[in-house]
Amino acid sequence: MHRWLDHLVAIAGIAAVAVIMTMIFRRAVGRLERRLSASPESGTTGQKRAHTLGGILRAGVLVVVWITAVVTVLQEVSVPVAPLIATAGIGGIAIAFGAQTLVRDLVSGFFILLENQYDVGDTVMIATVSGTVEAIGLRSTVLRGVDGTRHVVSNGEIRISSNQTRIFSRSVLVLPLPYDVDVDRAIALATSAGADLRSDPAFGPDIRSDVEVLGVDAFGADRMDIKLTVETRPGRQWVVARELRRRIKLALDREGISLMPAGTPDPRP
């Protein structure tokens, strides 16, 4: 009788410790979730990301704490747990071999969310495809390409993610000009077109800085390349670049300056 009473007391103590540990970890996870939600970059998407991470961590904590508690209780009542652990280990190895890809996707998805590599609505390049992020899950990321194609990318396949719309964006323009053009005059026209664009109320709010002319970037067989950059709000670089090209072309045409056929765009900054 006393022996069973001792077992009951021990089991109650184990359960109490498990409950206390669960409460402590849940509170810690809740604090982390609130901190992520309150980050400067956090909006509705950031709150969803924080909620997802919080749910994963809570589930993980519950599994670890209560499996440990159950094993400890079994040991307390003299139930042999070694065969159970060995059987579970063998089963776990078999499952692990069959689910390596799934586990890799889930782990990668967790760190993508934790590190906030991209949010829904961002334009990114991942795993050889690019597009606007439509959904982010633990297993996969869904992109919508500019041509409407829907790409579903397994998170485990993502080694490099390039976010084109985080904090700010930048357009890079190359003007291929013939050698007989007055370079300083062409640069002045391009700069003036950029200033006019920034003063336009339809485009000005999207532009964060004046057009910066980097100068003569390269010499070709029959042309020289003038490189320009303009910094914009996230995701607005393409709209601004199209309008800036149009205005520069009109300004050059008025001065009788023709553009040469452009070569392959230079990715250098």
Structural notes for this entry:
This protein has three domains: 2-98, Helix Hairpins (Orthogonal Bundle), CATH 1.10.287; 117-163, SH3 type barrels (Roll), CATH 2.30.30; 169-254, Alpha-Beta Plaits (2-Layer Sandwich). It is 51% helix and 19% strand. It is an alpha+beta fold and 269 residues long. The strands form two sheets. Strands 4-3-2-1-5 form a five-stranded antiparallel β-sheet. It has a three-stranded antiparallel β-sheet with strand order 6-8-7, with helices on one face. It is elongated and about 105 Å long.
Tell how many strands the DSSP assignment holds: 8
What name does CATH use for the topology of the largest domain?
Answer: Helix Hairpins
Q: What is the mean pLDDT?
A: 80
CATH architecture of the largest domain: Orthogonal Bundle
Show unreliable segments.
264-269
Sheet-strand content, in percent, reads: 15-25%
Q: What is the ordering of alpha helices and beta strands? A: HHHHEEEEEEHEEH
Number of domains: 3
Q: How does the major sheet shape up?
A: 5 strands, antiparallel
Q: Span between N and C termini?
A: 81 Å
Question: Tags for this entry?
Answer:
3-stranded antiparallel sheet, alpha+beta, 269 residues, Helix Hairpins, 19% strand, 3 domains, disordered C terminus, SH3 type barrels, Alpha-Beta Plaits
